[in-house]
Amino acid sequence: MKTFSFLTALFLLITSALPAQVVINADNSQPDNSAMLDVKSTNQGLLPPRMTTTQMYGIIYPAAGLMVYNTTIHSICWFSGFSWEIASNLDGKSCGTVAYGGKIYHSVIIGNQCWMTENLNIGTMVLISQDQTNNAVIEKYCYDDYSGNCDVYGGLYQWAEMVQYLNGATNTTSYNPAPTGIVQGICPAGWHLPSEAEWCRMERYLDASVYCGEGMNGTDVGGKLKETGTSHWAAPNTGATNSSGFTALPGGQRDYFNGSSYFSYLTITSLFWTPTPMSGAPTYALNRIFGNEFAVGFTALYDKRSGFSVRCCKD
């Protein structure tokens, strides 16, 4: 009995090391000679892992050829060994709409991300002289304290209001602890505030010369993101093609300096917060700037008490 058990185990060990084909079917047919795995069916399909763009980028050391179904953009994606690729070109197409606060927001696919095509306009308007506060009510500034400007250009938000005071974050302090995942903030459910890394990924996709550091960035990334014409942008709106479909609007800012606040740069600049604070400088956070006289983009640090526009990304 002991000899039989030993021989059986040895046989199983040897045969398990041999290459083998696997067939999954209902008719007991043989696998194709060219396939290690041959799945045959006339009424069922092959279902790859399904995950969001954020989850896909969270895969540690993906192997070349790794494939997933991206639920953010509704497409098969595969890893080339260097970057995540989309099975078919979806740039410029919609990835759905979302109703939020009585407004319908549209979207566009840029690379493998889904971005809103309008500036966020949610909340109750407060006057420029007031700071937005942690009072369970989303608050916004409207340029010149005129609600009609919010209808066109969206609201302007202080940084802490935008992140909704997550983990104790304020305009003078950082998160504690820092979030390890996406930050929803004032975005609707299923959407989130695009991080510095997500802005960088999108910009580099559009313009390979973007290096994602502070200061002037890229060659024509601003032009590819800005709405064309001068209906909202002041002339000359240099380089604007909006080839991405992002449709950046120049909502200006609620500027804050030495305790004073004022509105500036409507139709001149488009400024977007990121939820990424400056390390070691808790009163500052990173933002993106696009201007009417530039085709490039800018990355800068601003006082969190300033009021900027906000865009959301789909989870």
Describe this structure in words.
The protein is of the alpha+beta class and 315 residues long. It is built from 6 helices and 20 strands. The strands form 8 sheets. It has a 4-stranded mixed β-sheet with strand order 3-4-5-6. Strands 14-19-18-17 form a 4-stranded antiparallel β-sheet. Strands 1-2 form a two-stranded parallel ribbon. A hairpin with a 2-residue loop joins β7 and β8.
Distance between the termini: 60 Å
Overall average residue pLDDT: 92
Alpha plus pi helix count: 6
Please provide the ordered H/E string of secondary-structure elements: HEEEHEEEEEEEEEHHEHEHEEEEEE
Query: Which shape, going by the Cα principal axes?
Result: elongated
Largest sheet: 4 strands, mixed
- What spatial order of strands do you see in the largest sheet? 3-4-5-6
The number of strands is 20
Oligomer: single chain
Describe the structure using short key phrases:
single chain; four-stranded antiparallel sheet; alpha+beta; 315 residues
Condensed summary:
By secondary structure, this protein is an alpha+beta fold. It is built from 6 helices and 20 strands.
List the helices and strands and how they pair.
Blueprint: H1 2-17, E1 22-24, E2 37-39, E3 50-51, H2 53-57, E4 67-70, E5 75-79, E6 84-86, E7 98-100, E8 103-105, E9 107-110, E10 113-116, E11 124-125, E12 139-140, H3 147-153, H4 159-163, E13 191-192, H5 196-206, E14 215-217, H6 221-225, E15 253-257, E16 260-264, E17 269-278, E18 281-291, E19 297-303, E20 313-314
Parallel strand pairs: 1-2, 3-4, 11-12
Antiparallel strand pairs: 4-5, 5-6, 7-8, 9-10, 13-20, 14-19, 15-16, 17-18, 18-19
